[in-house]
Amino acid sequence: MDEYQRVLTSECSNHVNEDVNLKGWVHRVRHLRKVSFLILKDRSGFIQCVLESKIAKMKITNESAVEISGKVVSTNQQENGVEIHVDNIKMLSYAAPIPFEVNNDEIEANLDTILNHRVLSMRNPKVQSIFRIQSKIVESFQEYLRNKGFTQIFTPKLTSQGAEGGANVFSLPYFGKEAYLAQSPQFYKQKMVAAGYERVFEVAPVFRAEEHNSSRHLNEYTSMDVEVGFIEGYEELMKLENQLLIHIFEKVKLACANELKLLNIELPELKEFPQLTLQEAQQILKEQFEKTSPDGDLDREGEKLISQYIEKKYLTPFVFITNYPTRKRPMYTMLNQNNTELTDSFDLIYKGVEITSGGQRIHDYQQLIKSLASKGLDLDNFKSYTDLFRFGFPPHGGFAIGLERLTAQMLNINNVREATAFPRDCDRLTP
Amino acid sequence: MDEYQRVLTSECSNHVNEDVNLKGWVHRVRHLRKVSFLILKDRSGFIQCVLESKIAKMKITNESAVEISGKVVSTNQQENGVEIHVDNIKMLSYAAPIPFEVNNDEIEANLDTILNHRVLSMRNPKVQSIFRIQSKIVESFQEYLRNKGFTQIFTPKLTSQGAEGGANVFSLPYFGKEAYLAQSPQFYKQKMVAAGYERVFEVAPVFRAEEHNSSRHLNEYTSMDVEVGFIEGYEELMKLENQLLIHIFEKVKLACANELKLLNIELPELKEFPQLTLQEAQQILKEQFEKTSPDGDLDREGEKLISQYIEKKYLTPFVFITNYPTRKRPMYTMLNQNNTELTDSFDLIYKGVEITSGGQRIHDYQQLIKSLASKGLDLDNFKSYTDLFRFGFPPHGGFAIGLERLTAQMLNINNVREATAFPRDCDRLTP
């Protein structure tokens, strides 16, 4: 795409004393007696434009889309060292008065207003930054895995059964049958490993019909799924996720320095994440915080406290919790060799919020059948899954990272909806 | 992820006279009197393993997952110059007799059998190659656009209305409301342009409740969507798509040389794609092939014939068809300045199949309202869309490429289901 005419605001300092053509939105305009100052924003940044004589009187509203031609002039009044002396402004698309102020440092409106007017709220530079960073997270996730021999997969979201069986599944009529929306690509990513790809990832929406509205739950979210064949054990998966997150943090730091600065976020240098067994974590909570945990799990408060403890002790916001009890994990989870009451599974907690579940999966047909039976599940319902394990299913495992949660935690966003372009919850199906 | 023990089959030639540890599947095993030859496959390729004495008698079935340790030995009998003299084989996962032969050059089974046993059919090297190439198509699509300043977006698949209004939409109950599955991210990608990102792309599933089963339709497919703000006209979009496809072809050629060779595909050197207005295309069909086209469109036969004509005349498998009539395009399509009966829209035909629809969109509020009214659409139903155009919506447009169709056409696959890992149609919701 040639844009022989257009120069980005961030490129102006390379065009001093030249005539340029800029396009973007009016971030702010200030009329003095004989001169007006207009801040133009485009996808690359901001620039001050100086309007004199007739043009200074032009009726221009904030957030209008405009094309500006003028001369780039050096100035020491501006951070980027240049401003535009405007010859002409062409109105591309006039903006009516906007319902709330988006160009202050922070939007002073409640979350519902921000989400209802998503296009306008994203014009705020801080809000805008969130989804630039999100895009970079996904880019670096994919980049790291591709360099490690992973294949990107695309698996169906319309399925004939829920992956975990039963609850929290959206269903819909499908040509005389009943279809379900995928809660996760769990079975499909396992299938792609067994199909010979060995190492696969997927970045795609998943759907959870959970009725509770909380600041960290969505009914539709983006799952970054990873599955790896021929592993030696689940420790390998934690190591992979650790390295992957180190890569993501480094890339985001480099590529989104401006966005992070704007959001006042300093990302830490990540090293090896500490690990605690669930039992150890529960004991620490009891001893250090007099906190009792629910059977075989941590609750939200527990996740927060254990994160605080780890942050203090190891100076890192991440901690793996491992070896959840067999009765609390799905039927496909690999049992621990030393204690079959426990599983070779893990969660990853980041700043007090679980952003990953993962683990090794059962690959032995007989063991899988036994596991299904011990969970009281009907073997017939899982036949199309279990049958595959008769044809050389290698040892394997994986994990999934919730993109919106990772974004929110990284940027100290309290409600995951703010890290979602167009969030879906029990009360929200628009815009 | 360290794999200090494991060496890939493709790496063996770097380890001559060393002991290595390999993991993979038994592609084929041939027992002679005192020796057995086993072809091992992993994600990187194939290697011959020589089994002598006791190991030669081991019961090994095709498609079992195994771990093999042995010595890498030079040989001029093998294409890669090495083979493995095996010390030990560990059975990781035993394969029962498979229901059809997957290790011949072609799978001799009908499409239903191939799709019903997807994991096994993908073990066939040719079938396996299809989805490696598909992954590379997406990688290079994303790479090209990111380098051009595009942001990757993630928009909801659960919506409160169909983007085009009405037909062919799946619907489902959603917490007391009715939700629809997105037929395309059309409105959302436009919104993200207007939100300030200017240039966005999305790679995500879309859902079409179309009842007809054809060799090129799916009820769920992967749409590679692109939307660009501040364009001068729709020609810019065609140029972008042209350059994008040149990049994709070059990258696939480089990275998937083995896969293409296996599939006997030679990808052409792409240049500038020819363009025909719809009217010109229809006239050529009439004059050259005595073929009448449906009103304001090409039918399937017409797309094939025009592709043949272009291939012969310009030696390229691609052709843009432009300026579809206003009455045949969605309400958001920009009208042509010189003739408002026509639109600034295009389709891209590749080897006789449409793989893209695109065009400039209306960005002027009044013009949009007029367009809705002229289509007889109820303004109230589109208020949440049209209202956005009051707040500085810049000139913009875009296109979408169907990933499975592009893959199928590139690889001379007749039925798009074969270019889909787990296809969904009116009769198929499994595996």
UniProtKB/TrEMBL annotation, chains A, B:
Aspartate: region residues: 186-189
Known catalytic reactions: tRNA(Asp) + L-aspartate + ATP = L-aspartyl-tRNA(Asp) + AMP + diphosphate
Chief localisation class: cytoplasm
Domain Aminoacyl-transfer RNA synthetases class-II family profile: 131-431
Domain of life, per lineage: Bacteria
Subcellular location: Cytoplasm
InterPro entries: Aa-tRNA-synt_II, aa-tRNA-synth_II, aa-tRNA-synth_II/BPL/LPL, Asp-tRNA_synthase_2, Asp/Asn-tRNA-synth_IIb, NA-bd_OB-fold, NA-bd_OB_tRNA
EC category: ligase
Family note: Belongs to the class-II aminoacyl-tRNA synthetase family. Type 2 subfamily.
NCBIfam families on file: aspS_nondisc, PRK05159.1
Role according to the record: Catalyzes the attachment of L-aspartate to tRNA(Asp) in a two-step reaction: L-aspartate is first activated by ATP to form Asp-AMP and then transferred to the acceptor end of tRNA(Asp).
Record's protein name: Aspartate--tRNA ligase
Higher taxonomy: Bacteria, Bacillati, Bacillota, Bacilli, Bacillales
Gene name in the database record: aspS
